[in-house]
Amino acid sequence: MISLGSLFSRQTPPLLGLDISSSSVKLVELGRDADGRYVVERCAIEQLERGCITDGNIEKFDEVAEAMRRVVKKSGTRTRNVAMALPASAVITRKIILPGGLSEQELEVQVEAEANQYIPFSLDEVSLDFCVMGPSNSSAGDVEVLIAASRKDKVQDRQGLAEAAGLKPLILDVESYASRMAAGRLIQGLPEGGLDSMVALFEVGAFTTSMQVIRNDDVIYDRDQAFGGAQLTQLIARQYGYSPEEAEIKKRTGDLPEDYAAAVLRPFVESLGQEIARALQFFFTSTPHNRVDHVLVAGGSAALPGLAEAVTAQTTFTCSLADPFEGMVLGDTIREKKLRREAPSYLTSCGLALRRFAQ
């Protein structure tokens, strides 16, 4: 079984949610007040140089570990327990049906036997975990079990990063599961608590945009697309003759020429809206479905002015930004204006931080 606890462990001590993407490291720490409301106690983001993380793989270990140390220091937290995540591409997950009433040890034996059918590696090479989801809907008396497996070197890379940054890794999750946990709170805020609603969740990263279509906590479709916020940086560099590094800095600081909004930003936002519309169209043509009830957009580029409107214009579906801190109390150290501006970037890290309270 996995060495650092569990992909699905439930932790009650203070816990940091730490999301490592291709462009940044993001940290969230949540608490609860006397009324049971979530409190955003800490959050911080630290940029990564291009090439530190490629396709979820750690290419520059020392640089990433240093960025993790900086983001912890910047947040001001004293918590060292951390929940991290692997990209979905590094984890094999399967739902299986097993007899109800098995002991933990009997479940382990059954899971290992089943896992051999689905995992294209020797079980000696993987970290394997499972979680009982609940009674099976299709088989009376049986339970539905989720199996998750990842190569040990991928798990050890994340564990090593945490330890190099002075942190104690308690939970290793899957990025798409963590983002879905945070998005679940937002879906519950839709009409009728989001029951039976088809929600398309787009996370716009630097180089890749991931799409999940969710209904009643089930993912009925998921796909990655090769477009993201880095394309805006390229457009800025090309338009104004900046180096890629200069363009990235100026994009973050807003130190751009007067014609930037009209000449570069607006066309890019429209293009992003078109890409999201194409991704939805592909979903409709490859499944029996022909509509969604709501579109949520997260990630670093989600807060670009006019994106939600552009998506609605291109798709006719209602679109909103995924603010994972919606309805939460903000702690004394949190700067609200900055938090709201960056909130869609924190979807995965917030989902990881919520693992502290998962039952």
From TrEMBL:
<protein>
    <submittedName>
        <fullName>Pilus assembly protein PilM</fullName>
    </submittedName>
</protein>
<dbReference type="Pfam" id="PF11104">
    <property type="entry name" value="PilM_2"/>
</dbReference>
<dbReference type="GO" id="GO:0051301">
    <property type="term" value="P:cell division"/>
</dbReference>
<dbReference type="InterPro" id="IPR003494">
    <property type="entry name" value="SHS2_FtsA"/>
</dbReference>
<feature type="domain" description="SHS2">
    <location>
        <begin position="15"/>
        <end position="183"/>
    </location>
</feature>
<dbReference type="InterPro" id="IPR005883">
    <property type="entry name" value="PilM"/>
</dbReference>
<dbReference type="InterPro" id="IPR050696">
    <property type="entry name" value="FtsA/MreB"/>
</dbReference>
<dbReference type="InterPro" id="IPR043129">
    <property type="entry name" value="ATPase_NBD"/>
</dbReference>
